[in-house]
Amino acid sequence: MRHPPKSSIIVSLREACEDDNAVHLVMELCEGGELFDRIVARGHYSERAAAGVTKTIVEVVQLCHMHGVIHRDLKPENFLFAHKKENSPLKAIDFGLSIFFKPGERFSEIVGSPYYMAPEVLKRNYGPEIDIWSAGVILYILLCGVPPFWAETEQGVAQAILRGNIDFKREPWPNVSENAKDLVRRMLEPDPKRRLTAKQVLEHPWLQNVKKAPNVPLGDVVKSRLKQFSG
């Protein structure tokens, strides 16, 4: 496990101790619950809210990459709210699969959660770009309630990822802004060399103007899908 430096967007490691059987880590307590649970419980959920969450997630990726760390397991369950207040910060947790990397270094070990794996992980030749792909999958789910690559089996999910067909036809996509869809496409670029970096994602117009992102509700269908998917 590689834990990045202290930050308000990453859960802090308070203490570590060891006995004959295991290493015990004492982590910061986050009482605000999981990302999707908070969204489902909210009355109003919009593109603007999704943009705010995405910005934090990509800031975590940027911080990791700046310190030579690939997270390798970005998924909604690995983001918790610090407390129950509406203005609670969102924090990244669980760096159990993270690894240090050097510029140009490639990895072949297949790790992570099936829905969020980048195609190059399945091809066993990857670098830090995989974290942007995973963040792009989370963004897609935040906007429509289901993952972009879906199947009944892990093998089916892997095949869907390698095909790379992204559906923007079903609800609520016709009502989602073109800027948001453009960012999803660029984060889910199959070629890691052409995929946006964390810095480029944060410079994208949709995230540059988070407070100007559409505040129209994405609809109950998205929240009900999120509830079903996270349940």
TrEMBL record:
This is Protein kinase domain-containing protein. Residues 1-207 form the Protein kinase domain. It comes from Vanilla planifolia. Keywords: ATP-binding, Kinase, Nucleotide-binding, Repeat, Serine/threonine-protein kinase, Transferase. The keyword Secreted does not apply. GO terms for molecular function: ATP binding; protein serine/threonine kinase activity. Transmembrane segments: none annotated.
